[in-house]
Amino acid sequence: MGKAKAWGGVIGFVLVVGACNSVSGNSDDTTTPSSTPAAQDATAIAIPPSAAPMTTAPAARFECRSVDTVYDGDRTCHPGGEQVIVTRAIDGDTVELADGRRIRLLGVDAPEADTCAGPGATEFTRSKVQGRAVMLHKEPGVDLDPYGRTLAYLQFGPYFATDLGNELVLEGWATPYEGGQANTTYMDNIRSSHGIAEYRPNGIYAHPCGSPKVYGDDDGDGTPDYDDHVNVDAPNLPDGSLTGGYCARKWWC
Question: Hey, what's the signal peptide range on this chain (predicted)?
Fold first, then answer.
């Protein structure tokens, strides 16, 4: 009697295990549902480009939800645009794309690669965008320059929020390109960045390629204007310890 009960328990266990495998799908059928909510969410979320160099077009396209209608170069993404890969920095303001197009940045002018600050400007652009995904934005009605290069703006970095031209100017590697085809809003921002950069000893404003401006030096002689009053003869002033016959940043000068 004991052996019969034992064999009955074993048979019952085998039947239960077989039924569980049939229900859970652990048989020869290894197919999975074609789509799940998690899979749909994963494909809908656009992933910003990573810092790792890239040589092929990214699978995901970043969608900017900004309401800007005019490209302004501020540190925010801009709607629209074309996601591309930069394969080479030709110089500070010119790059080559994976599809062979050459892009000349609108609104800025960097030194040529073979001039004093040229290698530094080229290296700056290379460090920011070469081998990476960027967003290309066109100015309405603007296409190619006389050399066949596409005139455009480029944004890079997380969420494509950083304008390459503005960064070049702000860090002293380029100047505003007046008389070009960039829009006025963008150019106003570029000029503001230039107004900051020209007082810093960076890029084209650093030795040996140049020197920064001096605060308070409106006449361009390299010193603050209040220093121009030092050692000025003042024969009509009374002699004494306060005057000494000259002005030295005194209130009456």
Answer: none
